[in-house]
Amino acid sequence: MKKILSGNEAIALGFSDSGGVFASGYPGTPSTETLEALARIGDVYCEWATNEKVGLESAIGASIAGGRAMATMKHVGVNVAADALLTLAYTGVNAGLILMVADDPGMHSSQNEQDSRNYAKFAKIPMLDPSDSREAYDFVSAGLELSERFDTPVMLRTTTRISHAKGVVEPREKLPPRIREWVKDVPKYVMLPNYGQARHQELEKRLLRLREFAETTPLNREEAGGNDLGILTSGVSYQYVKEAYPGASILKLGLVHPLPEKKIREFAGKVKRLMIVEELDAIFEEQVRAMGVRVDIGKDRISLCGEVSADIVRAAAEEADAAKGAAPAADLPQRPPTLCPGCSHRGLFSILGKLKVFVSGDIGCYTLGALPPMSAMHSCICMGASISAAHGMAKVNEIAGGRGKPVAVIGDSTFFHSGMTGLLSMAYNGGSALVIIMDNRTTGMTGGQENPGSGRVLAGELSRQVDIIALVKALGVDHVEEISTYDLKETEAAIRKGLATPGPYVLVDKNPCVLRYRVKTIPVAVDPEKCSGCRACLKAACVALGLVSSGDKPKVMIDPDICNGCDVCSQLCKFDAMYKK
Amino acid sequence: MGVFNIVIAGVGGQGVLLASRVLAESALASGMDVKQNEVHGMAQRGGSVISFVRIGEDVRSPVVMPGTADLLISFEPLEALRYLHYLKPGGRLVYNKVPLNPSTVASGLATYPPDVEERIARSCPGSRGIEALSIARDAGNVKAVNMVMVGSVLPNLPLDPRVVEEVVKEISRGKGFDVNLKALAGGVAAAGA
Ligand SMILES: Cc1ncc(C[n+]2csc(CCOP(=O)(O)OP(=O)(O)O)c2C)c(N)n1
User: Fold this and answer.
1) B180: distance to nearest CA of chain A, Å?
2) How far does the CA of residue A394 sit from the closest CA of chain B (Å)?
3) Domain presence at residue A480
4) Which of the ends of chain A has fewer CB neighbours closer than 10 A, N or C?
5) Is residue A203 included in any domain, yes or no?
6) % chain A with pLDDT above 70
7) Residues A540 and A437 placed together within one structural domain of the fold
8) CATH code of A149's domain
9) Record: contact B111-A326, CB cut-off 8 A
């Protein structure tokens, strides 16, 4: 029966239908829904790992033990898992293994827009690049077969417009899981230098065989059309090409590494102008040019940044400026994402902003604390960097003298992902930063997933809930205290004490995510008689607040449908104008 | 038939995604090809959300280009104005008249333009505003604004309204079933009024 599935759902179903046995990963937009959908399907074991490296390593173990395995992550997650990946390329697999990676051209919800195709080249392994949900589904079984046939991990790469776009899928018959034998093979799986040297030779030979395979596989297909313009493309760019030029000659790649050199040469020979349409890096273009094939239109006309579109394809082919339909209305107030009404992070940032400390931030909902009016986060690089970067700052400040203690802010999921190691290092090296762990009992930013602190696993069953305070102590920190950032006075006092005390100091807020746990409390109301219109409460940056004109000075009003009663704004009010009914 | 392009705009948390799903499932149930796409991840954090539904015989790109939408459904007036340029000449706009403050306005960094509806009317003369919040409240849940909005465009869709109704029933399975149907009917009535 036909179904409408997102690319992520299609990959989950594809894995379940292709005899998948084990899947692990770490949440990250736009990859997250893959494991969530697999958990809903319910017939394949799947789990959230604490980070992408752990997820991939567990999938490697599953493959060695003979179960078809998949690891899922967003593009930057591959950086974390890369150590495992680059040597996995040497060992190869037992049962089929797929690394599903979701890129985010346009950075809809990411900190960079790195192109994962580089990793396939770097690791010298095959990569599949589906162009819609239907192919996303099909490429899972194709990938697992390829993995077993060539004894290699296979990367299955999507982009946001594949992972999150929904399209029609017609599922095949379901294969039962087959578990292969679990064999010991020291030269294959123990990468000591002498074994590694042999496996490297093997990897290079395998890559040559894959190049041959690329020439004949139906994963790469030529669509014959006019001979004036020939377009080499893959992934969602293929759809943009079809939209712009339904009748053009197209060489559509499903296997984007290694490239089919003969096929490309032949295709280029048949058309007057060769155009390459690829999002982000010039991966195809550089390789095609290295083959000595002339590229007429490529990255000279299609940006290295952001997404491609049908309009961009048309403009590039016609060597014209991109079509400028009606322009969007200028001068409209922006509507950026913002902390939810009632969010436990709000109180913290209103205090940090007031104290004017340097906040070494991390990745999560709390990164929104960097936006005005709070503007209370001053660096944010990658997951886990808050604590380690604060440590580096503290050491320089010690040398420079006369500077205050830095503050690191990190969420629970990020702390488990890669913050713990930074804290251990800080404690070990006699560092001195104040670390605030915002334990809202979920991986919030990616939609509220379970983690080791939430007490449940991906499939929903209860599990052991880690004790963060005991964990922090075990890492070597003596000063650790629980606070509630809903109480602004208490929070300010605790932060001041933490800043005044030398050495590592950790504060933990344990208020749950209001969105994930559907926390609803009585809304706050404003007494217009008492409101002076001073706007101090607007520093709370809450969408429930608004100004209404009354006489000469607009006063604050609270929308009871939106307010979640956290009382942060009322604590910012100096006129006692806010109350609960 | 060519491709019918729908853009749904709103604010994170308003249910834009569910409304998109209703339209996409209805297209599939009507035997058509469909692609639906929105960028989520941060969608529930009160940010501006835009979703595309493309219905036709053979739909390729999941993205609607500016200047090509047959129908723009906006759950909020400012968002209608923000995405108005997606409409093709002669395209239709239906929007919820109830404003929601963006965080920039709520924190006093910007003001909500006082003339949003006038500007909409000027650029898109055939547009229609709906009091979706009160209709949803009457139906039994303020969160049903999304179903009101779907109802309000039913006559403008290349879909049989009964198919859409069936899909809403199927999707709400048990919970909120009657509220959703009431909201849908409320939207239909408001569009006709
Ligand atoms: C290496 C890497 N993996 C995954 C992500 C995606 N990601 C962004 S924030 C986040 C987790 C946030 O959870 P938490 O730290 O608990 O903070 P919260 O959002 O709940 O406040 C994740 C997984 C990422 N940015 N980088």
Assistant:
1) 19
2) 32
3) yes
4) N
5) yes
6) 99
7) no
8) 3.40.50.970
9) no
Query: What letter would DSSP give residue A579?
Result: E
Count other Cβ atoms within 10 Å, centred on residue A36: 19
Which domains are delineated in chain B? 4-192 (3.40.920.10)
Q: Of A83, A246, A333, A107, which is closest to residue B111 (Cα–Cα)?
A: A333
Asked whether the beta carbons of residue A242 and residue B48 sit closer than 8 angstroms, the reply is: no
Ligand 1: residue of A50, A413, A435, A451 to mutate (most ligand atoms within 8 A of CB) is A413
Domain of residue A262 covers 220-317
Question: Cβ distance A546 to A559 under 8 Å?
Answer: yes
Choose among B67, B106, B112: nearest Cβ to A542: B106
pTM over 0.90: yes
Alpha-carbon distances of A61 from A38, A195, A230, A304, rounded to whole Å: 20, 19, 44, 37
Does A434 score more than 70 pLDDT? yes
Ligand 1 nearest-atom number relative to CA A51 = 3
**Residues from chain A contacting residue B107 (CB–CB below 8 Å):** 372-373, 538-542, 545
**A112/A36 same-domain check:** yes
Residues A357 and A495 in one domain: yes
Chain B closest-CA separation from residue A543 CA (Å): 5
* Nearest beta carbon to residue B37 from set A161, A331, A332: A161
pLDDT tens per residue, range A139-196: 999 999 999 999 999 999 999 999 999 999 999 999 999 899 999 999 999 999 999 9
Q: Rounded to an integer, what distance in angstroms lies between the CA atom of residue A513 and that of residue A530?
A: 32
Looking at residue A581, what is its pLDDT? 83
- pLDDT over threshold 60, residue B43: no
B72: helix, strand or coil:
strand
From the CA of A414, give the closest atom in ligand 1.
Answer: 15
Give the ipTM of the model, two decimals please.
Answer: 0.95
A227 with A370, same domain: the answer is no
